[in-house]
Amino acid sequence: MTSTPPATGSTAFLAAYDQVLAANWPAGTTSTQVPTPWGSTCLNSYGPQDAPPLLLLPGGGATSTVWYAQAAELGRTHRVHAVDLVGEPGRSTAGERPVRTVDDLNGWLDALLDGLGAGPVALGGHSYGGWIALHYALHAPRRVRKLILLDPTGCFAGFRPGYLLHALPMLLRPNAARTRAFLEWETGRAPLDADWLRLREAAAGFPSARPVTSPRPSPGALRGLDVPALVLLAGRGRAQDATRVAAAVNRLLPHAETAVLPGVSHHALPANGPAVPELNRRMGEFLGADARS
């Protein structure tokens, strides 16, 4: 691993990224690069070096910096590694192999864990990051001690049509104003951290690869997953129907705990709003058996 060099992106984006780290992440956070065939991957890490590893994947466009509340809380008992997805906004850089398929994502995470020298890890993800985490757990269950999915999209149910309709202008012609308008609509104008919101707006101009897509995992594959899982859903989220997702999780994942967090939207997770203490409490209790005595 190496210390983090400058990443491709605008000066405004990099300044906003560094501001979130400086303002929100706890003192002692380190930023490193792990080389993989799919790109040099940036991790922002916090917690005791010898503590059980917890790898966290952000939603699309959110960057690793969004996990600051979890790093501060869960970093007491775990070595938290928050990841910038290769091909997404952040300080990771693309490599010789483009990330185009689920197999590419799984290979990238294999290489990332190899580079960290980590044994089985607790793996978490929000939104698109949850989708990646679930696919990786199905690919390499022996490398995943526990799985945490925060309002994962495309895993157990489809998007609500209204969500896609509102997201379309931002996806087709992204800019800061459209990003802010979309987040205000989805969160119901709930307060968001000002530094992180500025970063999301700056990320609209970041050169990004098209996210990997595929059909949802098959019911048979999900029923065969023996990794303990925690699935926390946004009760006021507009991306998907939390009740429908919870029912699917309870039906398909035999080793899952499921809860709906009331009053929180999809994009307020994982760092914004009054649900953060409850989110951290549930994550901490689920991970508790892994923590050092």
Layout: helices, strands, pairs:
Layout: E1 2-3, H1 11-24, E2 30-36, E3 39-46, E4 53-57, H2 68-74, E5 79-83, E6 93-94, H3 102-116, E7 121-126, H4 128-139, E8 144-150, H5 161-172, H6 176-187, H7 194-203, H8 219-223, E9 229-234, H9 242-252, E10 256-261, H10 276-287
Parallel strand pairs: 4-5, 4-7, 7-8, 8-9, 9-10
Antiparallel strand pairs: 1-2, 2-3, 3-5, 3-6
3D shape: globular
What percentage of the residues does DSSP assign to strands (E)? Answer: 15-25%
Characterize the largest beta sheet: strand count, sense, and whether it forms a barrel.
Answer: 10 strands, mixed
- The overall pLDDT average reads 93
Low-confidence stretches: 2-8
Q: Provide the succession of SSEs.
A: EHEEEHEEHEHEHHHHEHEH
Q: Which structural class fits the helix and strand makeup?
A: alpha/beta
Strand runs, count: 10
Helix content: 25-40%
C-alpha end-to-end distance:
28 Å
Care to describe what's here?
The longest helix has 15 residues, at 102-116. β4, α2 (68-74) and β5 form a beta-alpha-beta unit. Strands 1, 2, 3, 4, 5, 6, 7, 8, 9 and 10 form a ten-stranded mixed beta sheet that branches. 38% of the residues lie in helices and 18% in strands. It contains ten helices and ten strands. The chain is an alpha/beta fold and 293 residues long. It is globular. The protein has helices spanning 11-24, 68-74, 102-116, 128-139, 161-172, 176-187, 194-203, 219-223, 242-252, 276-287, and strands at 2-3, 30-36, 39-46, 53-57, 79-83, 93-94, 121-126, 144-150, 229-234, 256-261. α2 (68-74) crosses α10, α3 crosses α4 (128-139) and α5 runs antiparallel to α6.
